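Comment thread on ticket #2218

A.B. wrote:
> Attaching the input chain for the structure job we discussed in standup.
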Amino acid sequence: MRPYFLRLDLVLLGLSTFAAAQAPQSSSGIDLNAIDKSVNPCQNFYLYACGNWKRQNPVPPAYAVWSRFQELQVHTQETLRHILEDAAAHQDRSPLDQKIGAFYASCMDTTKVDELGDKPIQPGIRRIRAIKDKADLPGVVAWLHGQGIDVFFQFQSAPNPTNAKMEVARADQGGLGLPDKSYYLRPQDEATRQKYTEHVAQILQLIGESADQAKQDAAVVLRIETVLANASLDRVSRRNPYLVHHAMQLDSFQALIPNFSFAQYLSARQAPHFTNLDVAVPDFFKSLNTELAATPLEDLKTYLIWHYVSGYAPLLSKPFVDANFDFYSKFLTGTQQLPPRWRRCVELTDRELGDALGQKYVQAVFPAQSRQKTQELVQIIEQEMRKDIEALDWMSPATKQQALAKLQGVTNKIGYPAKWKDYSSVNIIAGDLVGDSQRAREFEIRRRLDRIGKPVDRQEFNMTPPTVNAYYSPPENNINFPAGILQPPFYNASADMAVNFGGIGAVIGHELTHGFDDQGRQFDADGNLRDWWTKQDEEEFRKRVDCLANEYSQFSPVEGVHLNGRLTLGENGADNAGIRLAYMALLGGLENGTIDKSKIDGFTPEQRFFLAYAQIWCSNERPEALRSSVRTNPHSPGQFRVIGVLQNMPEFATAFGCSAGQPMVSPNACRVW
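C.D. wrote:
> Ran it. Output below, let me know if you need it in another format.
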């Protein structure tokens, strides 16, 4: 899927400085103005905590979703805009300022961009059209992959699943233009497929094809991609790491796809020498091999041209930008209006030169004490997780020992990387937006590919510092909190600690728990894919996660659509366990006197904790966005990240005086950790 400027924003975590500024005077840090006291908290705590916010914050035209995440993101983007405009206006400053300033200026120069039209991509189109024989395909595919255009399949470096401290070559499925394989296969998505082919034809006409030829070529693209979709593993199946990791000799892998020379491909990509690789879905490559043999060369070239042009469409003149937006954002997610140019250019600069822009961002908003305080909070939550594991009544001592060893092995990365990337070799040329972006992409893709056969750099972030998000990495066994999410009021030194534990504390617990969710639990303390569970403990675990999967599958965010409890299982499990760990930290703070036991703003500390957690997820979503998210996003919509979690917690029911039989008290509460 290609949203504007190749950026897909997934709502994972977030809270807003705007919300805090607009709220009535609050001593605790709770957004009192968001609360709808006409709602009984035991009937629907999400609407109680967020009802007024939802009424006051309809989705703006340029968004598919508006939430506390987006509020903080907008605030962050304003900060980045100031940095970039200042850098663009003073090109005699540092090399770093010159780099990000020139890139941003090229993006903002719409006069030049529109004047160029499709000229920047015409040489690439001619290169594809000049292919004379299928034997030439590997070289062209390598050239496209080097720019991040993942035609047919994906190939990169990744931690070795059986030796996670080393990087290994990895081949995986890819090559689709729609968000998920199901869009190609379900009868009820026929209208979407029709709209997609119309979009493909529209883009192809913009590069000079006749209407009739473009229509024929769009049908070719859909047919090829449907074959790839049929051969692809679905998202739920991919949650099982044993289904997406297959160690193979390079010769054996080549035997799966004899119609495509990987020797030629690897030579063209200048990949490091290797003899073993990790193949995600071997059957996918068997199907791709058949398709390459059966499909006429001209059709394969049409497919390559479409993906090449579509990959750069958001960076071209207005007709390309509008066409890209109309399908990928307006049709698929319901977004009504193209975001302002400056915001798209900020996102692009963050994407392509993230560490360069990130250095400036960290200097502006993330003092050293913020990093230190976050580390202290992480250590508190880790201590509570150790207690939780030790107290489990369903896990044997043998498995507990392994779990505690894994917890001990978790490393914490806070704010920004230990070493910044050096972009000095990336040539940024004024007025050459496509070229600037291509060179930045090639630099990063080359840098990552060169890791094959080398030790994993576990200090590196896979998110840029301004990102309003966080993540856990199973093969690296580390939790990562970019500076972008560590902003007030997510964590606010002047806020009540009960509120901070309900906010950033629950997030920290969420990320830690990912090491023990249905995916993460299958990796050991070193990040290796290894079964360290006794059979009985695994059965006990499965019974508990089955409860969660069934519970969330009953939730319906939009009429006629239910959540996929198996797709969202990991995130739901992390939400449920993460808040419990944070609540344990809250109780510790009440016991040692670091948290005020009295009512503040009319709420007890326990009530403030649960309100803070719920208000993280205040959001409004367009129906189109919800329908797409249910199929592709492993995270549940905000309302169910509140309702699903709190109805499973007796502590919540006690805090708000809820009783059995009320909606916020589950008759069959689920709990794993």
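A.B. wrote:
> Thanks. Noting for the ticket: The radius of gyration is 25 Å.
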